[in-house]
Amino acid sequence: MIDTINISVEKTTNSKLSQFDQENLVFGKLYSDHMFIADYENGEWGDFRIVPYGDLSISPANTTLHYSQTVFEGLKAYRTKDGEIAVFRPIDNAKRLNKSAERVCIPELPEEIFMEGLHELLKLDHEWIPSKEGTSLYIRPFIFGFDPYVGIRPSDTYKFIIITCPVGAYYAEPVKVKVETHYTRAAAGGTGFAKTGGNYAAALYPAVQAQKEGYNQLIWTDGKNHEYIEEAGTMNLMFVIDNKLVTAPTGDTILKGITRDSVMTLAKEWGIEVEERPIKVTEVIDAIKEGRMQEAFGAGTAATIAQIKAIGYDGVDYELPAVEGREISNRMLADLNKIKSGELEDKHGWLYKI
Ligand SMILES: *Cc1c(COP(=O)(O)O)cnc(C)c1O
Fold first, then answer.
1. Is the C or the N end of the chain the one with fewer CB within 10 Å?
2. Distance, CA 190 to ligand 1 centroid (Å)?
3. Dihedral angle sign, alpha carbons of residues 251, 255, 261, 264
4. How far apart are CA 40 and CA 65, in angstroms?
């Protein structure tokens, strides 16, 4: 990679690598030794640096603490079978970060800052990338307004930061989800397509209510009539109905998942019919009742594929076919894992090697 930005590096004198235990990885508990930071001031990004992971000093008047002018991404680096480091589709995350940023008046971050910051950070913290099956290094890039100002307006200053943490397999257990027909995650014209803080804060309360009722997650429906399936809180939803892979079209209320795109791409290659169209809640329930729903799963970076075992709607839980017999999603997870580990050819240029 050609260096177009100048990154200063301050290495930690107090590495936490001795606490890094591949056998016992807990999501979000232990962060890698370093982080990448860039500052936006006077209309441009600069002061690119890698420093020891640690706390930031922030004004109590910080605009983001009050008004959530913030965007984030989530992606993963994997250890290939040859011991190389491969990041899955990072350029797509860099592009999506800017789409989210535009919606909340955060200035564009040139893709090379994202890519080179990531590259140098992973080069330095390469020992934090686990190799055991199902493990990876979760990467969290984010931008937030930094002005110490409680007036409501776009911030003049920002920070772009990348932190990472080693993770094990996520949501290994099939989930029970509830169709939400009261609360709304995203409305037409709103921010649903953007990875911005407020969307997730607004989803907490309904999710906690559902958890009290015994569900793991929510299926969000359209904000207007709660008639159409949208997505889960951090995953896009996919169904196999009558042997076709069906998923809702992304627009301004549904986040355009990179896993979703990867799943649709592979399914088409396998000759499976893929339908991207509005899906009524009643269609899903009828398909389950009539035995025409073969599979249902969430697609997102955290779990890759999260199997859905039951869907709750209107006080009734509808059970789905056994996970072991689900041909498309099981093969999908296996093949995506094989692409990431280098066992299957990366035909689409999805892997970015460090
Ligand atoms: C991140 C996210 C997804 C999944 O996107 P991936 O790029 O596949 O990780 C889906 N829905 C929402 C709301 C998300 O925040």
1. N
2. 16
3. negative
4. 18
- What is the residue-level pLDDT of the chain in tens, covering all 354 positions? 445 789 999 999 999 999 888 888 887 789 999 999 999 999 999 999 999 999 999 999 999 999 999 999 999 999 999 999 999 999 999 999 999 999 999 999 999 999 999 999 999 999 999 988 889 999 999 999 999 999 999 999 999 999 999 998 665 689 999 999 999 999 999 999 999 999 999 999 999 999 999 999 999 999 999 999 999 989 999 999 999 999 999 999 999 999 999 999 999 999 999 999 999 999 999 999 999 999 999 999 988 999 999 999 999 999 999 999 999 999 999 999 999 999 999 999 999 999
Question: 100 CB less than 6 Å from ligand 1?
Answer: no
- Judge residue 29's burial from the number of C-beta atoms within 10 Å of its C-beta, 0-12 exposed, 13-18 middle, 19 or more buried: exposed
**Residue pair 150/273 in contact by the 8 Å Cβ criterion:** no
Tell me, using a 6 A CB cutoff, whether residue 234 lines ligand 1: yes
Phi and psi angles of residue 270, each rounded to the nearest 5 degrees, phi first? -80, 0
Structural contact between residues 76 and 88, judged by C-beta atoms closer than 8 angstroms: yes
Kindly report whether the global pTM for this prediction surpasses the value 0.85: yes
> How far is residue 123's CA from residue 235's CA, in Å, rounded to a whole number?
29
Give residue 213 CA to ligand 1 midpoint distance, Å: 24
Are 7 and 113 contacting, i.e. CB atoms less than 8 angstroms apart?
A: no
Q: Assess contact for 149 and 63: CB atoms under 8 A.
A: yes
Q: Is the CB of 139 under 6 A from ligand 1?
A: no
Instruction: Spell out the alpha helix ranges (H) of the chain.
Output: 63-67, 90-103, 111-124, 197-212, 258-269, 281-289, 327-341
Question: Which tokens is 95 given?
Answer: 């592009």
Distance CA 318, CA 307 (A): 14
